[in-house]
Write a structure and sequence with these properties.
The complex is a heterodimer of chains A (about 325) and B (about 450). Chain A is mainly α. Chain A contains 14 helices and two strands. Chain A has a two-stranded antiparallel sheet. Chain B is α/β, with parallel strands linked by helices and about 450 residues long. Classes of the chains: A mainly alpha (about 325), B alpha/beta (about 450).
């Protein structure tokens, strides 16, 4: 045997297969069913919106990093995930230039100015959505009926949540249609079944944990069932779960690693907090929908939650003995 | 339900390379090197001189310090050198070189001790010390020290650690299959020393054949219980093993004796049994030679002092260029820069791997996925320790209990950003300990 050069480093010497890009790839994969459903219901325009958002986010990240002389890290796919989430949160008829500006806001202001991947304190896609909701309120709340085509033919329509709240006139779609996604809404939020498929995929791949979504949906449902506009009405509660952005938010936005707590107890508190806030905004707030604001507000208190839910270390019980 | 602890995770174990292969003898090796630092504790002083003729089992180094165990030659031959040699820790350590005469003349001091019941606990502890027996699992803590807990600690459990949770390692597994009676006999001696009527052997369920063999053999040994453990890393870490079997938590900064437990390794109790049956002190141990570069992986009975190169040659050499050589398991073992380092008492395995993982150029930032928090067996938050330490904030690191880290490596193994928190934690722990020594 010849004398060889060996790599010497600190243990451990093996590593799991998982990497940031593999996780982001899993999230993109998990969003495919909801994206396909959105394109199926709302036509080619939905595909163009999704594509615009993804391309803009990736491009803005690359451009920013190029000019700031940083390593260009778009191949970690995190910008693509942000882009796809922005796209899925858009009404199908949104003007594309607004999508481009929203994407720039998410990537440059919310993500990169705070230090890039892992450093942003709120979810970039949700921040962009709320920014756009305030900047272009009308374009962001004009929804269309599925299978109607676009342009002049497009029939704008109230979302089920607006109807439930009584702020808009219109007929409620059947619960069955809500479950499959045949209803007005953002591109990616309408189909409960497709979102659930993606969610289960992420659970199976162990990319996310069930704690936040479970706490979120359970707390929200219980509150709505007991204290909603029509208490103890299961149908009303089901409408609230299946419409709006609750499932998209609970499955894919409230589970964003960077902006949510890392401790098991913290994750339950985070999910429960989102549930309470969403209930309060939907029932008593000015907006028919409150998922985005709820998650953003809980993002802001995430560092605090983490600090107060530090797990008890192994063997801590004996602390007083010493 | 197999017993276990909270945290940890199942890691692909790569044990199939060697877990079906019986323990083999190593071929003769000309020059044996015996570093005077075999384990944690005080370094030894040579009791032989250059030119001396020594025999198998003859004491060649000792020290008067309490936390240390003497060293014995594994061959007969002439002492050719006492000078610094490469040590598996990466340092250069004064070592005794003995040229093997291949006669294996056995020292007159090697006499079977016979029935342990003829000895008092104190005498048994002295015999164990004189035989140079140390913990053969990890750090190599001298066994006679472990068996002499302070009088105020009431010991209620003695546990033999057959978890062998590190990937690749199968030496304990083979020992349990091939000499269950030696293990049980050694455990009975430890029970006698500690005045206990019960002893436990914990074995991970991925070694079902070992559980079966040991359970059958244990029938003849009153008071010995075999406990199946969940297959999960780091099930064999002392505190986690104690938690799984006794449900007791060793206090932070405490020792197993604080909760009345003593943990011994499989090979350690075998060595104890061996002294009483044959009189031979600790001069060899079982080493798993494995990894994707090794042509014929196997389990070998390796005498002390054999250079790693010779051991790999016994395993057929390399079938592809290894990029990393590890002494011990892949999670906690020490990377080697030279194949000239010799086997010592804590050499549990030798691995030759072709994959060295990512380089520093490829790391991503921490994305706060929390996987390290979820799996830390000490229930720490490695991501915050990593952050604090990289910012030079040792105070916050201490507040987040950095000194409780057992360096199992799960955080670095899992980190999708390849942040290697453990490397930072290790350096900071050292700094904190040094600082507290100074003040």
């Amino acid at each position: 045997m010849q004398e060889q050069k060996f790599v010497v480093s600190s243990s451990p010497h093996i590593h799991s297969e998982e990497s940031v890009s593999s996780i982001m790839f899993d999230v993109l994969t998990a969003l495919i069913p909801a994206s396909v459903a959105g394109i199926y219901f709302f036509g080619y325009r939905a595909a163009i919106v999704l594509l615009t958002a993804v391309v803009s986010c990736v491009a803005f990240e690359a451009i920013y990093q190029y000019f700031m002389k940083k390593r260009i890290t778009v191949n970690d796919l995190s910008a693509a995930v942000t882009g796809l989430l922005i796209g899925l949160n858009m009404p199908p008829s949104i003007p594309l230039w607004m999508v481009v500006i929203g994407s720039a806001f998410a990537i440059v202001i919310v993500k990169q100015l705070y230090g890039g991947l892992g450093k942003n304190f709120i979810n970039p896609a949700l921040a962009a959505r709320c920014f756009m909701l305030i900047a272009w309120a009308s374009a962001m709340t004009t929804y269309v009926t599925p299978f109607m085509g676009y342009g002049i033919d497009a029939v704008s329509s109230a979302t089920p949540l607006a109807v439930l709240k009584g702020v808009s006139e219109g007929a409620l779609p059947s619960l069955r249609n809500c479950f499959f996604g045949i209803k007005p809404g953002s591109i990616g939020e309408t189909s409960a079944v497709m979102l659930s498929i993606g969610f289960i995929y992420l659970l199976v791949r162990k990319v996310i944990d069930f704690k936040i979504p479970a706490a979120y949906i359970i707390v929200f449902s219980v509150l709505t069932f007991m204290f909603g506009k029509t208490p103890y009405d299961a149908t009303y509660t089901l409408y609230h779960i299946l419409t709006g952005g609750l499932l998209l938010g609970a499955f894919f936005m409230a589970t964003d690693y960077t902006t949510t707590p890392t401790t098991p107890l913290g994750q339950i508190i985070f999910g429960a907090g989102c549930g309470i806030l969403t209930f309060v905004i939907r029932q008593f707030g000015g907006y028919p929908e409150g998922v985005s604001f709820s998650i953003l507000l809980m993002n802001v208190v995430t560092p605090l939650i983490d600090r107060y839910t530090v797990p008890k270390k192994f063997g801590e019980v004996a602390k007083n003995v010493r | 339900m197999p017993a276990t602890f909270k945290g940890g995770l199942h890691i692909e174990d790569f044990k199939d390379f060697t877990n079906k292969l019986p323990i083999k003898k190593l071929s003769d090796c000309g020059q044996h090197i015996f570093p005077l630092q075999q384990h944690i504790g005080a370094p030894l002083e040579a009791v032989v001189k250059v030119g001396d003729y020594v025999k198998v089992g003859q004491k060649i180094a000792d020290s008067s310090a309490f936390v240390c165990a003497p060293l014995h030659s594994s061959v007969s031959g002439t002492v050719t050198d006492i000078k610094p040699f490469i040590h598996p820790s990466g340092a250069v350590v004064t070592s005794i070189a003995i040229e093997n005469d291949f006669l294996y003349n056995i020292s007159e001091s090697v006499i079977p001790k016979g029935d342990p019941t003829n000895y008092t606990p104190e005498q048994i502890i002295a015999i164990i010390r004189d035989a140079g027996i140390v913990g053969l699992g990890g750090a190599g803590f001298p066994t006679h020290v472990k068996l002499s807990p302070p009088p105020d600690k009431k010991i209620t459990h003695v546990i033999v650690n057959g978890a062998e949770c590190e990937p690749y390692l199968t030496s304990d597994h083979r020992r349990m299959l091939e000499s269950p009676d030696m293990i049980l006999y050694g455990l009975k001696i430890a029970m006698r020393v500690l005045g206990l009527s019960n002893g436990y052997i914990g074995i991970e369920t991925n070694k079902a054949d070992a559980i079966k063999t040991m359970t059958a053999a244990a029938d003849a040994y009153k008071g010995v219980k075999i406990i199946p453990l969940k297959t999960k890393y780091p099930q064999g870490a002392e505190k986690q093993l104690i938690k799984a079997i006794t449900k007791r938590s060793v206090p932070s900064k405490g020792l197993p004796a604080d909760v009345g437990v003593i943990v011994l390794n499989i090979d350690t109790v075998t060595a104890i049994a061996n002294v009483f049956k044959t009189g031979m002190p600790l001069t060899s141990r079982i080493v798993t030679v494995s990894g994707d570069c090794v042509k014929e992986p196997g389990n070998f009975e390796v005498p002390l002092g054999v250079p790693f190169r010779h051991i790999f040659e016994n395993a057929g050499g390399f079938m592809k260029e290894p990029r990393k050589i590890i002494m011990g398991g892949p999670m906690m073992g020490i990377a080697q820069f030279s194949l000239d380092a010799p086997s010592i008492k804590t050499t549990s395995a030798l691995l030759a791997l072709s994959d060295v993982g990512k380089t520093y150029d490829d790391i991503s930032p921490c994305i706060r996925c929390g996987k390290c928090v979820n799996s830390c067996p000490m229930h720490l938050m490695p991501l915050y320790l990593n952050k604090a330490v990289s910012e030079g904030d040792l105070e916050t690191a201490e507040k987040y209990n950095i000194l409780d880290c057992i360096e199992c490596g799960i955080c670095s193994y899992l980190c999708p950003g390849r942040q290697n928190p453990l490397q930072h934690i290790r350096v900071a722990k050292q700094q904190i300990i040094e600082k507290s020594r100074k003040s």
